[in-house]
Amino acid sequence: MGGAAVTLGVQSRRWPVMTDTPEPVKPIHLGQSSALPASPEDAVLDYVPNPRPGKPYLVRFTAPEFTSLCPVTGQPDFAHLVIDYAPAATIVESKSLKLFLGAFRNHAAFHEDCTVGIGERLFAEMQPLWLRIGGYWYPRGGIPIDVFWQSGEPPAGLWLPAQDVPGYRGRG
């Protein structure tokens, strides 16, 4: 990607024209009919230029109905995922993220592998300033498992709201 200036979106009095941002790559999923990838490895994540480069802000995605398969029994596992990141040059396009997460539906892996693997892939490809993921897994075998990963210390001055996913309490 070159350093040529590009214009993003519509020029208006309220929002300035963006310059010195990476050249856009046409997303392959946005506005297109896209099938669910066969596996997370087959999923293609789209990244688009950050519309507010140089401005520290937080992006949050929640996936309250995330599913994968237990690698031992093949039974479904369910989680509530919360992904927070501070963008640098790019942001992840939400439809491609949805397809990537959906690709885990038939993927057999332990909770720790799914949660940390999602965070590591997003961090490696998007290269945000900072990223964290919380995987709040529902009980299997009577034990809920919560898995957390982050790329390092968050940028100074970044507002970090709590993930606010309550711990599993059962029926008690």
From TrEMBL:
Its recorded reaction(s) are: 7-aminomethyl-7-carbaguanine + 2 NADP(+) = 7-cyano-7-carbaguanine + 2 NADPH + 3 H(+)
Cellular location of this protein? Cytoplasm
Active site (catalytic residues): C70, D77
Any stretches that span the bilayer, and where are they?
none
For this UniProt entry, the molecular function terms from Gene Ontology, in alphabetical order, are:
preQ1 synthase activity
* Keyword Oxidoreductase attached: yes
Q: What is its EC number?
A: 1.7.1.13
Q: Name one GO cellular component term.
A: cytoplasm
- Keyword Disulfide bond carried by entry: no
Instruction: Name the top EC class.
Output: oxidoreductase
Q: Which UniProt keywords apply?
A: Cytoplasm, NADP, Oxidoreductase, Queuosine biosynthesis
What is one process in the GO biological process aspect for this record? tRNA queuosine(34) biosynthetic process
Coiled-coil regions listed in the entry: none
Query: What residues does substrate bind to?
Result: V92, E93, S94, H111, E112
Primary residence: cytoplasm
Judging by the UniProt lineage, the source's domain of life is Bacteria
Pathway(s) where this gene product acts: tRNA modification; tRNA-queuosine biosynthesis
Checking InterPro entries in the record gives:
GTP-CH-I_C/QueF (IPR043133), NADPH_dep_7-cyano-7-deazaG_red (IPR050084), QueF (IPR029500), QueF_type1 (IPR016856)
Q: Return the similarity comment.
A: Belongs to the GTP cyclohydrolase I family. QueF type 1 subfamily.
Q: What does this protein do?
A: Catalyzes the NADPH-dependent reduction of 7-cyano-7-deazaguanine (preQ0) to 7-aminomethyl-7-deazaguanine (preQ1).
Protein name per the record: NADPH-dependent 7-cyano-7-deazaguanine reductase
From which organism does this entry originate?
A: Sphingobium herbicidovorans (strain ATCC 700291 / DSM 11019 / CCUG 56400 / KCTC 2939 / LMG 18315 / NBRC 16415 / MH)
Q: Which gene encodes it?
A: queF
